[in-house]
Amino acid sequence: MQKVPPRLRTFAKEQRRTMTRAETVLWRELRAARFAGAKFRRQVPIGPYIVDYLCFSRRLIVVLGNANLALDEIRAALRVPPADLP
Prior knowledge:
Blueprint: H1 6-17, H2 21-30, E1 41-46, E2 49-55, E3 60-62, H3 71-78
Antiparallel strand pairs: 1-2, 2-3
């Protein structure tokens, strides 16, 4: 996986500190493996993007309120074949 630029990493940390109400509600359900036993991380930098929630073990990305992410670029950043992610 590519190294995350320091500016993007700093921005992701800031996003973790300032969650929206919707993010807070969803995080309450996802944290501590409460959702189907899956461990999620929040505000994770992937390539040039920051995804809201990521579960590595299930290869699941959750994005709230931003339908403009380029999934092909995220797949490339993760180096996952397109058939393995939606």
